[in-house]
Specification:
Layout: H1 3-9, H2 20-24, E1 36-45, H3 49-60, E2 65-68, E3 84-86, H4 93-100, H5 102-126, E4 138-142, H6 145-162, E5 167-171, H7 172-179, E6 186-190, E7 193-195, H8 198-211, E8 215-217, E9 224-228, E10 231-235, E11 239-248, H9 261-264, E12 268-277, H10 282-287, E13 294-297, E14 303-308, E15 311-317, H11 326-339, E16 348-358, E17 365-368, E18 378-382, H12 389-403, H13 427-443
Parallel strand pairs: 1-2, 1-11, 2-8, 4-13, 11-18
Antiparallel strand pairs: 3-7, 4-6, 5-6, 9-10, 10-11, 12-15, 12-16, 13-14, 14-15, 17-18
Helix pairs in contact: 3-8, 3-12, 4-5, 5-8, 5-12
The structure holds flavin-adenine dinucleotide.
């Protein structure tokens, strides 16, 4: 297919969701699309945290990058997420030890810590006040005694095996006082976690990179990447870009064009949705989530919540399907009112959703292609499994190292571990079925 025909097959640029973040982030400039014959040492495909952090780390090494974003900076998960900054992976550290040994679990734990620090460092480096970073911890709230026991065992394991004593088990009364909900039997407070304004952070990163001369082009989908003489050629609707190397940072949005086909085959895109209430009346505001941390439940279909400028922001995943639905948002509202009955009459002011990229082993992966026509010239990172604010901010450091021919110690994040999804045609129905089963098990209290 020619590049022109490919360009025609791409759906019109979809609008960004009308989220709380879009309504409250500082305005961003419209950046021009790439056009004509261009050159770059490295082309970064995707203008989310992964792509932007890669451009940052390349710039630190004196390597010149050109970032291509199909829509606008932060249009993907990076501008839509819950803003929970945490170094946890979907696969628990104890499970990592069971499967891969203590040293691997230890390295993964260190990577998690580095990831939270990477967010702090980027925000400090570019002075991103609009990221509104608050290092206020994350509280996991147990919905039954069995889950509280598991949280306690996890804290013991982290202290005993990894020497991490930063977790604190809290009794039901403290949780009720802090959250304003009587729905929990106790919880585990993790101190190495923060919250931020996701779109303010993404836009601030892009602005900071531009100040130091990094080129960012919006409305520019990379249609195809191919070998061209000694380097690579990236085709877009209006440009042909000669590049020494290319990074794919398209994560759950890798379905857009054939350029990121090799990621699409290994990811299951899963819809995650968020609602935000209108500002709470002062009496209610004072009684709910007073410490303004991030909070999550221990149910299989985990719901999480936080307070942002007097509004409750409540999110979760479910059997949501390809597009947004009234039923999915109403399900979230009901779950919120189940935990906070006082919110029954408070208006939901914003509702939006986005895709998270799930992998078979529940872990993100990063690396470069070592074989084939792209040998050593193409690097990628993907599969944050819905926990990527911190990790994708760190991943650029590894991507830049891989592109410069180094082999950083990424333990279980090694790209060679990324497995293709069997029967890709069945991936969406299978996800919905599993999510439906989990919701049912949660409902009957199993
Ligand atoms: C609703 C929701 C809530 C979440 N909440 C949290 C949370 O609270 N905490 C947490 O840690 N994680 C959370 N996540 C996950 C987190 O947001 C992601 O892991 C992270 O943002 C991934 O960043 P990224 O840069 O890899 O991908 P994205 O931000 O998705 O960026 C990919 C970009 O690539 C662009 N693109 C795709 N194809 C092309 C192409 N061919 N050419 C050019 N550009 C292209 C897309 O337009 C998109 O902007 C959430 C995700 C969602 C959707």
């Amino acid at each position: 297919m020619t590049a022109a025909a490919l360009a025609r097959s791409i759906p019109d640029r979809p609008p960004s969701p009308a989220s709380l973040w879009a309504a409250t982030a500082p305005a961003a400039p419209r950046r021009p699309a790439a056009s004509g014959e261009l050159q770059a040492e490295v082309v970064v495909v995707g203008g989310g945290y992964s792509g932007l952090s890669t451009a940052h780390h390349l710039a630190e090494r004196g390597v010149e990058a050109l970032v291509l974003e199909a829509n606008e900076v932060g249009w993907g998960a990076s501008g839509r997420n819950g803003g929970v900054v945490s170094g946890k992976f979907r696969l628990g550290f104890a499970e990592m030890e069971r499967l891969h040994g203590l040293e691997t679990a230890r390295r993964m734990h260190a990577i998690g810590r580095e990831a939270v620090e990477a967010v702090e460092a980027l925000i400090a480096r570019y002075g991103i006040a609009a990221a509104r970073l608050q290092a206020n911890g994350n509280l996991r709230c147990a919905h039954n005694a069995r889950q509280l026991g598991l949280l306690a065992a996890e804290a013991d394991w982290l202290a005993g095996r990894l020497g991490d004593r930063s977790y604190e088990l809290l009794p039901a009364g403290t949780i009720a006082e802090e959250t304003g909900s009587a729905g929990f039997v106790g919880g585990l407070l993790g101190h190495h976690a923060a919250t931020l304004h996701p779109l303010g952070y993404a836009r601030g990163l892009a602005a900071g990179l531009e100040r130091r001369g990094v080129r960012i082009r919006e409305a520019t989908p990379a249609l195809r990447v191919r070998r061209d003489g000694a380097g690579l050629l990236v085709e877009t609707p209006e440009a042909a870009i000669r590049a020494g190397k290319v990074v794919l940072a398209t994560n759950a949005y890798s379905d857009l064009t054939p350029a990121s086909d090799r990621l699409r085959r290994s990811l299951v895109p899963f819809r995650s949705a968020i609602i935000a209430t209108a500002p709470l009346p002062p009496a209610l505001d004072a009684g709910l989530l007073a410490r303004e941390r991030s909070y999550s439940e221990t149910r299989r279909m985990m719901r999480w919540f936080r307070k942002v400028e007097g509004r409750i922001v409540f999110g979760g995943r479910g059997a949501f399907g390809k597009t947004d639905s009234e039923a999915a948002f109403e399900g979230l509202r009901r779950a919120m009112v189940g935990l906070f009955p006082e919110l029954a009459d408070v208006r939901v002011a914003y509702r939006w959703s986005g895709l998270v990229g799930m992998t078979l082993d529940k872990l993100p992966h990063v690396g470069r292609l070592e074989a084939g026509p792209f040998e050593g010239r193409l690097a990628f990172a993907a599969g944050f499994n819905g926990a990527g604010v911190a990790l994708s901010s760190l991943i650029g450091r590894y991507l830049a190292a891989f592109l410069c021919g180094e082999t950083p110690e990424v333990a279980l994040l090694d790209a060679a571990r990324l497995r293709p999804i069997p029967c890709p045609a069945l991936r969406e129905p299978a996800v919905r079925l599993t999510a439906g089963l989990y919701q049912f098990l949660d409902f009957i209290g199993r």
